[in-house]
Amino acid sequence: MKTLLVADDDPVMLKLFEFNLRKAGFQVIACKEGLGVVQKALTEKPELVILDYLLPGRSGLELIHDFKANARLSEVPLIIVTGQGKGTTRDDLMRAGAACVFTKPFSPSLLVQEINRLLTRPVESVR
Q1: Model confidence band, residue 89 (pLDDT cutoffs 50, 70, 90)
Q2: Which of 16, 61, 67, 76 has the most beta carbons within 10 angstroms of its beta carbon?
Q3: Hey, what domains does the chain have and what are their CATH numbers?
């Protein structure tokens, strides 16, 4: 069973992520704020991380930089979820190293499809 780390400060969104991803067969580790995400990833070793763009303590963009700067986490695919539909935010996140960006609202089935796609790609092609 693949392990995913999901960070979102909205308890309703976090429950929705947990429900839909567990239903799809993933083990889900939840985090409610940005400051503990990197440490939790180092401890739990998820195969993929889903980050809300606006987390308390550390933004999704800052966390992308943190993951890419850490040799143990730099190849972990990062999916960013945002309520901001502006193209520049999306472009900035992709340039920083996000594997993909989802704008809320989105279909849980599309998220699961993207997770499965990212988890079956060779590590070198995730970036």
Answers
A1: confident
A2: 67
A3: 3-121 (3.40.50.2300)
